[in-house]
Amino acid sequence: MHDMFNAKSVAVIGASETKGKIGYDIMKSLLNYYKGKIVPINPKGGKIHGIPAYASIKEHGLVDLAVITIPAHLIPATVEECGETGIKNIVVISAGFKEIDEEGAKLENQLVEICKNYGIKLVGPNCLGIMNTYNDMNASFSSDIAHKGKISFMTQSGAIMAAILDYADKKNIGFSRIVSLGNKAVINENHCMKDFMEDENTEVITAYLEGIVDGPGFIRASRRASRKKPVLVIKSGRTSKGSEAVSSHTGTIAGSDSAYEAAFSQCGIIRVNSLDEMMDYSSALAFSPLPKGNRIAIITNAGGPAIMTTDVAIKNGLEIAQLTCETREKLKEGLPDTASVKNPVDVLGDASPERYAFALETVLEDPNVDGVIYLVTPQSVTDAEGIADVAIEHAERSEKPILCSFFGGTSFEGAEKLLALKQIPNYLYPKRAVKSMKKLYDYSIIKDQEYPKSPEFDVDKVAVKNIIEEAKEKGMHTLGLESFDILKAYGIPTVGTAITKTLEETVKAAEEIGYPLVMKIVSPQISHKSDVGGIKLNLKNRGEVKVAYEDMMENIPKKEPNAHLEGVQLQKMLSGGKEVIIGMVQDPTFGPMLMFGLGGIYVEVLKDVKFQIAPVNETEAKDMVAGIKTHELLEGTRGDKPKDIDSIVDIILRISQLVTDFPEINEFEINPLMVFDEGDGALAVDMRLMLKEGGFDNLLQPSGEAMSLRSSN
Amino acid sequence: MHDMFNAKSVAVIGASETKGKIGYDIMKSLLNYYKGKIVPINPKGGKIHGIPAYASIKEHGLVDLAVITIPAHLIPATVEECGETGIKNIVVISAGFKEIDEEGAKLENQLVEICKNYGIKLVGPNCLGIMNTYNDMNASFSSDIAHKGKISFMTQSGAIMAAILDYADKKNIGFSRIVSLGNKAVINENHCMKDFMEDENTEVITAYLEGIVDGPGFIRASRRASRKKPVLVIKSGRTSKGSEAVSSHTGTIAGSDSAYEAAFSQCGIIRVNSLDEMMDYSSALAFSPLPKGNRIAIITNAGGPAIMTTDVAIKNGLEIAQLTCETREKLKEGLPDTASVKNPVDVLGDASPERYAFALETVLEDPNVDGVIYLVTPQSVTDAEGIADVAIEHAERSEKPILCSFFGGTSFEGAEKLLALKQIPNYLYPKRAVKSMKKLYDYSIIKDQEYPKSPEFDVDKVAVKNIIEEAKEKGMHTLGLESFDILKAYGIPTVGTAITKTLEETVKAAEEIGYPLVMKIVSPQISHKSDVGGIKLNLKNRGEVKVAYEDMMENIPKKEPNAHLEGVQLQKMLSGGKEVIIGMVQDPTFGPMLMFGLGGIYVEVLKDVKFQIAPVNETEAKDMVAGIKTHELLEGTRGDKPKDIDSIVDIILRISQLVTDFPEINEFEINPLMVFDEGDGALAVDMRLMLKEGGFDNLLQPSGEAMSLRSSN
């Protein structure tokens, strides 16, 4: 989008001299600041704002950028004309497309097609326009251009663009590029992300998004961008999954926000929840060096606010730096007796600018200090401007971040202006300075983040393909543990299991699996197996297996005469393991999303799970295990031995590969996966795999057999 | 403190004409606004700021209030003199008391004694002073008096008083009374709470506190106050329990902040974490009617901000009101076609004041709407002042709260001023309007809160007294399940248990308790009983008990030749119950604090517990059970039957009474309490009770016997 933002000539198609028309506003916006060539296009011709108008873009010929404000139904033909003229950059301000109705959606599709044919980059339709302050170009509704600055902003809401510009004007916050995304027919957040990343005037990338067009593309673009510049995103609009049928725990727990949460953290995006946070963090990130660690010093002229600041800092994961003996000695020498030379450093209510300067210099030199919160309250003798000058002078040359909180009102107006003018981050409330410092620290880690590739295991993809094909042919789309071969093909260990139909088969299978065993009746009509004697535990030998089988076949029909007994399921009895769940659901934006949690109440009641978008790499798989609140339970607690976390990680990675290889898998879950002590591995005990619908039976009525196998208690 | 705030004459002891002296500042502060009589006191006499000075307070005689600014060591004599003169209200500004050293603490104690003798109310020492805007009285350091308003504020930090006044001046926020509490030698937060509650000009009580002098008194005062007026408190300063020895789970988990958290919620205090929240919520609470419910309507001229507002509202526990058909019909008729008549009501970017007025009136009339968020963004045609006027007009007569968010900057300055002038709550960011609305709703519930008395059970207090006395005599201070009689005396059911020393005793006890039984070896030297065969489960009859006993006595000495076997412990084996913990620790501020949680990992790993300060009433006991995150597990989930919650509540109430009756109990815990299905009750299986130290053996070395009984595995 370099050419679009750096256009040397702009045509306004639909330019107008009539106040109230969009074509009037856009012309005014451009005329106010733009130094390039402005070409008004209007079929009536004549002069517009004193500039000769052309009847059509063809009549004029090539420009670097065309801004279109004419009614929607005329736009496809006009864009076509632009294409024929060789124009590559277009902004469509006009509304009346897919945001309105079916008819509008059709018009929008036409635009997309035309743009494809001519290789046109089109912003909008239905947007407020774009700005590049470094080209003095305001091709937008907003009459004033933003101040020059280091923040670039893309927004899916025009009103938020207007509000932020108005607010930024008051606070002297500057921008580099601004894009109102509108309907995102052609240009979307991924293009802007790339552009802002490449723009040398942009230091911080910010975005207000209500949705994302291309999830995987977004992850790729953001990973690249976030290593070069901080990326702050507000994602609003919680959508509920609504009536969509889900039949796994994973599906029940995963909301659409889980996917955004996971994706953002996987690609180094700093998610913010409100515009005030976005502005606070942006100004720190745009103008401060990054701290080398999370140890902060607080300099203050009053105790109370320093205590509050300390509380907030600890709560937000920062550390209160332990000052070295040298620092404390030096402070003791240079400060009055009653000053506090422990961190927070209290320079007392009567502190002069010189005393602040001495304290600031001294703590900045301390190797234990990674950043400074510079706290000032209005006391009767406080020389606020002088103290602000000290902050400015040091902030401009320090390699450690200094964030100010001039915590007052009327008497600090002068100091605030001084700081704003020099773009030194200053926050009314100390809390906001602390939270901004935390983001500086967070970004210092994100910046160096590596995104290694996911491992590729040597698996039997063909075997899985065959199982899935076969299921499709049969019209099944829910597979249970009878399809354990899928796991085996991907190298995931499974517990010995068999479904058998006769006594002979059963005894033979039992010998193969080994003892002790559990036997469960298989019958679609029986949901509470234990009530009818349909579960036999701890079968220790061939004889016990035989007795159990015969007992079931004889006695269950007496209790459930209408039940059709299909056979029995044998499974090796396990002991000493811990149950975990690994699952996957398809997210409409980001594709396959993995879930990890401990089994039973941890998932069902506590909802203590961790999501990640697949494919995951080893670090991410480890993060999934470490990311649940109850991970201590796997690491050995209360005398328990640590469990085999390496096996869990390995299986997560294999499942990641499986669901990535087979996008037709709609939901997937191993529940439970039994994890044994460290070094002893893990075994899948049950699984559930749902294929995407497409001529298959309805999701809500899974095949009887798989269903009955799961409903054991 | 009525007389202090409404003083008609004020003496300044230490009044001065020398700039830089405190006695100078205080004189200036008073002279600027105060209409009562000002009496400067200075041994040099003469005139101060044109007013004749007296050499001593005695020379002048009675005044309503004396403000003292002379050096600390002279103050006790001066306060004595004030007492003799009949002065009842004093503010000591001077520092140099317990905040400095031992010597200062002694001086402060002298002050306290003198005040007691004369019945003097003394604010400070070491404070900034007091203000009452409705008496035009500024008896403080701060040169400017606050604007008249409805908020009263007490603060333990003078700097925060200065900062808030400065901020409030800029934002046109008014106050009624302000107190800088200083060292709280005599007057503390409880006196101020009562005074603010009674002050007819105060609508909202706010406080910044770093500690509380008298916890139980604070709870009483706050319960009374919070039913009349909202009470907002910032409690800062996290203190760690440090090295204090604790030996129960309750003690390990309870931090000092748990007690504040519990106490505040038990007495209707709205806890806030920062000054910006305090200011935001105060202005809503001071000027808006309370909503009848949590269903809000959002009126907006832009979609994006409305979506964000909706997100925040839902996240904060508000509901987006479902507008009635009539409302939607009416809106449809009166608004343009493309407007959204579903909540959020989008009146579109070109909305005029009239259109806002129509939408506001219409939604206010809707019975499904409890309050309105009035959202405005700057669009090219927005008449911000006109739209603000609409809000003002309606807010002034509506019975439903209307909170504004004029979300912009430069172009909203005029509108902001209009709203501030009329004291209509307005927030830059919609998020803050929403959070303030939530506090209005919270307070609508707190206001009607009942605080019924705790029940008084018919218990055998004497029996417990005797057990405790006996333990003290023996020098024991840790009691285990050998002291189950304490529970029995308070009507708490316990599992059948006995400690026996011979085979004969053991068999007899077994017959009494009933089968099945568990037998455990009792020996202070054996910590892992099961390793040496010191635990026998499921003993079903007299014969099995005999065999088990003989086996232990014969074989354990072979494995642990140095262990002294004191006997065995028998306990009825329980099945089907759920383990919970009920505990208590003494909090230094609030006294006995109860804890409830589910047993095992829920407490140890998840720290999922709920605290309340004792004594608790029935509602609070129920809240403890309902207040843990995993309470579902008690209510019946995954096919489990609901557990007997009534029994838990009953036992919590009985323990509340026990620990209140015996303040010498330092820590207490029933762990586990086995809770059975609804109607089947609960049984204490083990307990641990620690008496306060005072000549007893050290907490870290509990008596061997009790210790060994607990360390079974």
Please explain how this structure is put together.
With 713 residues, the first copy, chain A, is of the alpha/beta class. The first copy, chain A, has a 7-stranded mixed beta sheet with strand order 9-8-11-10-12-13-14, sandwiched between helices. In chain A, helix 12 (303-315) packs parallel to helix 17, helix 13 runs antiparallel to helix 14 (353-365) and helix 14 packs parallel to helix 15 (384-397). Chain A starts with a helix and ends with a helix.
Count of DSSP E strands of chain A?
Answer: 30
Structural category of chain A is: alpha/beta
Order of strands, main sheet of chain A, comes to 9-8-11-10-12-13-14
| Computed CA radius of gyration of chain A, to the nearest angstrom | 33 Å
Helix content of chain A: 25-40%
N- and C-termini, Cα separation of chain A = 60 Å
Mean pLDDT of chain A: 90
Secondary structure layout plus pairing:
2 copies of one chain form a homodimer.
Chain A: H1 2-5, E1 9-13, H2 22-33, E2 37-41, E3 47-48, E4 51-52, H3 57-60, E5 65-68, H4 75-85, E6 89-92, H5 102-118, E7 121-123, E8 129-132, E9 137-140, E10 147-155, H6 158-171, E11 174-180, H7 189-198, E12 204-209, H8 215-228, E13 231-235, H9 249-253, H10 256-266, E14 270-271, H11 275-287, E15 295-300, H12 303-315, E16 319-320, H13 325-334, E17 345-346, H14 353-365, E18 371-376, H15 384-397, E19 402-406, H16 413-421, H17 430-446, H18 461-474, E20 478-479, H19 485-489, E21 497-500, H20 503-513, E22 517-522, E23 535-539, H21 542-559, E24 567-572, E25 578-587, E26 591-598, H22 601-604, E27 609-613, H23 618-626, H24 632-635, H25 645-661, E28 665-675, E29 682-684, E30 687-691, H26 704-710
